[in-house]
Amino acid sequence: MTTDVSNREAMLAKIEELEAEHAKAVAGGGEKYVARHRARGKLTARERIELLVDEGSAFLELQPLIGWGSDFAVGGSMVTGIGVVEGVECLIVANDPTVKGGSLNPNSLKKSFRAAEIAARNGIPTINLTESGGADLPTQKDIFIPGGQGFRDLTRASAAKRPTISVVFGNSTAGGAYVPGMSDYVIMVKEAAKVFLAGPPLVKMATGEDTDDESLGGAEMHSRVSGSSDFLAVDERDAIRIARRVVARLNWRKRGPVPAPTFAEPELDPDGLLDLIPTDLKEPFDPREAILRIVDGISPDNAVAFDEFKPLYGSSLCVGWARLHGYEIGILANARGVLMSEEAQKAAQFIQLANQKDTPLLFLHNTTGYMVGTDYEQGGIIKHGAQMINAVSNSKVPHLTVIMGASYGAGNYGMNGRAYDPRFLFTWPSAKSAVMGPAQLAGVMEIVARQSAESKGEVFDAGGFAGVRAMVEGMIEEQSLPFFLSGLGYDDGVIDPRDTRTVLGICLSVLANQPVEGEMNFGVFRL
Ligand code: COA
Fold first, then answer.
1. Final residue of a domain: which of 198, 215, 248?
2. How confident is the model at residue 1 (pLDDT cuts 50, 70, 90)?
3. Which residue's CA is the closest to the ligand 1 atom numbered 6?
4. Which of 110, 131, 268, 429 has its CA 20 to 30 A from that of 186?
5. pLDDT average, residue stretch 77-105
6. Element (H, E) at 360
7. 226 CA from centroid of ligand 1 (Å)
8. Cα–ligand 1 centroid distance for 199 (angstroms)
9. What phi, psi does 91 have (nearest 5°)?
10. Which residue intervals define the domain CoA carboxyltransferase C-terminal in the entry (predicted)?
């Protein structure tokens, strides 16, 4: 493939924007609050994570852009992700006390629930790095009742033999007290942790008792008197050291697929992914160009990088087998935007094959949806699409999804979009996702408005509608962009395409904590 300067420039510009948005999440509550936090002798959420994970290991951050476009700070006042601690992949959830005292707003809740879901589905331990003002009080109506799920998830994790560890660095009061309360292992930092159901002023009001923070919920008290803490740490670094020792003693064993001991780097240079995505998503691109830049290359025990299946049938969808960081995977990638009956049936067959041989699936999106029109309807496009959606819905092997380009209409569903429970879903900065394209949506609205006017015997004001059309197109375009969708929590992150191989490699290693077992029972396939 030749270098496409304009595609590359457009992608690099989007990556630059992405970095600027990530920088906002990294900045937390901003300079003033970070400086105040440090002046108190405290580490930031990200520094705590950095000290916790194994030196030189990667941290796969999740949903850093949640809250983008909302009234809340980007990042949901917490950092979540998967890090390797003493060789064990753990979900790490760290409150960011520099953002509104680490209090939890509706975005924080969404983000923490998704993190807990990822830990549950991939069967990994959880480490909470706690310092939070609890519920964001002005939005309590949106979080109080659903918020109970956080404590429920912790105790269910424990019952499922997924240990939970809580390191308390500061405030963890009221409902927040149940984070350490429900955890299997609790570490509290001396003279910093505050874990009580009600602080001194509330106790005074409720019972008239005069008391202080330390007697009510200090680290010494909980470690020596109440027994709510298992370890008393002298400072933050000591607490992190103890947390690492706890993980080292979990006797953790991965029970899933074992990767090939060696693997080759991709056949094609991952840097070429920058050239691949056309600036206009209506132009097709060959997904094999992406696949060969992401999957393992040829090696003595991997004779072909990508074994395409059924290449002559339903050629708008490319499917086949490959390895990624030594893990066997099946891939489904859109080749020419639209999905027709052949593609849908090919996908349904391929997903069953992956389940038959217990192999995870990777979905690479660039689809405008299922084909419309009389011939296709008469040819059964609905029932064939339904076959594909049935296969995706009932498949039990882990699914990974990357939205490279377009992801419109029911194509988003058939290709295992967010509603279909992918273990992980990442988006490229070039992606666009909506019920349909902005021009098509505005055009449909115009036709509907025209018909409605005519049915009432009114004259349709086409000139007047032009303004509405432009406004709708602009709005839909904005709402289909990756930052907007990431802000709503519809992905696990927007990534630089060049990082796709590494990100997917981590995901495959994480899901290998549990056995991969396919399913041969699907719903009724309407044939
Ligand atoms: N909801 C909404 N905003 C909160 C908040 C909460 N629960 N807790 C803190 N904030 C805000 C503060 O209003 C302040 O905002 P501002 O800087 O825009 O004025 C900012 O977060 C920092 O709070 P501050 O009190 O200055 O920080 P601190 O580090 O000295 O103390 C806490 C942090 C969390 C110990 C303290 O703010 C506190 O006790 N909050 C209430 C805790 C609580 O009772 N929560 C209810 C649990 S259900």
1. 248
2. low
3. 136
4. 110
5. 97
6. none
7. 26
8. 13
9. -75, 130
10. 269-527
Whether residue 183 is found in the same domain as residue 292? no
pLDDT digits (tens, 9 = 90+) for 253-300: 999 999 999 999 999 999 999 999 999 988 999 999 999 999 999 999
What amino acid occupies position 337? G
| Residue 115 CA to ligand 1 centre (angstroms) | 24
Whether 232 maps to a domain, the answer reads: yes
- Quote the number of domains for the chain: 3
- 468-516 pLDDT, tens digit per residue, is 889 898 998 888 899 999 999 999 999 999 999 999 999 999 999 999 9
Give the residues surrounding ligand 1 with Cβ less than 6 Å away. Answer: 100-101, 103, 133-137, 171, 173-175
Provide the pLDDT confidence category of residue 3 given band limits of 50, 70 and 90.
low
Q: Is 19 among the domain residues?
A: no
Distance of alpha carbon 68 from alpha carbon 452, whole angstroms: 37
Which domain, by its residues, includes 373? 270-433+481-511
The CA-to-CA distance between both ends of the chain, in Å, stands at: 40
From atom 36 of ligand 1, which residue's Cα is the shortest distance away? 133
Whether 424 and 492 have beta carbons less than 8 Å apart is answered as yes
Distance 201 CA to ligand 1 centre (A): 15
Shared-domain flag, residues 296 and 212: no
Q: What average pLDDT does the chain have? A: 95
pLDDT at 414: 96
Considering the domain architecture, whether residues 310 and 330 belong to the same structural domain is answered as yes
Inside any domain, residue 7: no
Whichever domain contains 306, its CATH number is: 3.90.226.10
Task: Please indicate, yes or no, whether residues 231 and 364 belong to a single structural domain of this protein.
Answer: no
CA of 172 to the centre of ligand 1 (A): 11
| Distance set, CA 460 to CA 423, 465, 471, 476 (Å) | 48, 9, 18, 23
What tokens were used for 32?
Answer: 């003033």
Residues 187 and 167 in one domain: yes
**One domain, residues 418 and 460:** no
325 and 451 in a common domain: no
Do 320 and 280 fall within a single domain? yes
Ligand 1 atom at minimum distance from 100 CA: 21
How close is the Cα of 208 to the center of ligand 1, in Å? 24
Q: Confirm whether 2 is domain-assigned.
A: no
Q: Whose Cα sits closest to atom 1 in ligand 1? A: 136
409: left (phi over 0), alpha (psi -120 to 50) or beta: left
